[in-house]
Amino acid sequence: MELALRLRARRLATRRRFWHIIARALALHQSRKGLAALDAHMLRDIGLTAEEARREATRPLWDAPDHWQKR
Q: What is the mean pLDDT of residues 44-68?
C-alpha cells in the first residue's frame, strides 16, 4: 500500500513538473513575441537596439537564459 502511494505521488509530481515546464515555455514564447512587436521608440526606452530585440525574439524556445530556468 505504501509503495502504491509513493508511486502515485511520484506520478503526480512528474505531471506537475511537465505542466510547469509547458507554462514557462508558453510565457517565454509570449514574452519574445511581445518583444518582436515593439517599435524603435519602445525599444530605445528599454535600452535595446532593433537587432538585439530581433536576435532575442528569434531564439529557439529551449534557448533561454539560465536565470530564467530557476524554479
A: 89
